[in-house]
Design brief:
300 residues, 2 domains, transmembrane, membrane
């Protein structure tokens, strides 16, 4: 569906927004605005990563924004983010996307309030900033999840199974960071005199700040996973230690009981009045010696 958000009569430049485009719509727009065929092809690929290129006086930008409707277990670039393709020239701005983009409608409203005074270059930078802002709330949510898992691991007496949750946390932070890193390279293409370099630098700073935030979450999640694995291994070792101690205590007792349970005909102890209490006493002495040895080795 094609809509004209800004007309040349009102602002001196055009803004064409195309949602879920057909091939015929793109071919018509490409012919009208002299867009390069390879760029048009890239704009149709929903899985395309952020990029920029300058072809025949037209700046082509692909960025990605966080999908507000992504399901809880989404952990790939395609599941977590949606693509936004932008063609820019002083005389026009063309945005192409498959799914609705909330900040495009917000941008149009700001243009109307400002009397259509903002140039196309300024709108492009605002759109890139808006796409970046969509990653801020997910970053805060991931940080809260990180705190939750950290408290569960260190404050709970029994560590619950969190392999799946920690894995998705790590994947989401790593994927979002990767998208932001790729989208940051787009700012290197904003070198034309059309763009105010103060705004471009502000955009770069915003990218860097959010990238560092996701990097911190990613590193913390990695550390938490390693800690979780170490604690799980330690608890397994504690269980094995208890089982080993019990087996060490019962091995000599089982040996003694096994000997006197063979019922040989010539076993004088079996006919002795004190044979049974003597064997029990021997078991108690052996158990005491093992206990004393464990205490001396500080294994108990």
């Amino acid at each position: 569906m094609q809509k004209t958000l800004v007309s040349a009569e009102s602002a001196g430049w055009e803004w064409i927004d195309i949602e879920d485009p057909t091939l015929e719509e793109l071919q018509f727009v490409a012919q009208k605005y002299d867009l390069h065929p390879s760029s048009v092809t890239d704009s149709l690929q929903p899985e395309h990563l952020p990029k920029h290129e300058f072809i025949e006086k037209v700046l082509f930008v692909i960025t990605r924004f966080h999908d507000p409707e992504a399901h809880l277990e989404a952990d790939t670039i395609q599941e977590l983010t949606n693509k936004l393709a932008i063609f820019y020239n002083r005389g026009f701005l063309i945005t192409i996307h498959k799914f609705p983009v909330p900040f495009i409608a917000e941008m149009k409203g700001r243009l109307e309030e400002g009397g259509w005074s903002m140039p196309a270059a300024g709108v492009l930078i605002k759109l890139l900033k808006a796409s970046l802002r969509t990653f801020q709330r997910p970053a805060l949510k991931l940080a809260d999840e990180l705190d939750y898992y950290e408290a569960k691991i260190f404050l709970s007496r029994k560590v619950p199974s969190m392999n799946k949750g920690l894995y998705h946390l790590k994947r989401k932070s790593a994927v979002s960071r990767r998208v932001i890193q790729l989208a940051e390279t787009v700012t290197t293409g904003l070198t034309l005199e059309d763009f105010q370099q103060t705004e471009v630098q502000d955009l770069k700073d915003a990218f860097l700040l959010l990238e560092n935030q996701y990097e911190e979450i990613s590193e913390s999640s990695n550390n938490l996973i390693n800690t979780y694995i170490s604690l799980a291994s330690q608890r397994t070792n504690d269980v094995m230690r208890v089982l080993t101690i019990f087996s060490v205590f019962f091995m000599p007792l089982t040996f003694i009981a096994g000997i006197y349970g063979m019922n040989f005909e010539f076993m004088p102890e079996l006919k002795s009045r004190w044979g049974y209490p003597g064997v029990l006493g021997a078991m108690v002495v052996v158990t005491g010696l093992i206990y004393s040895w464990f205490r001396r080795k500080q294994w108990l």
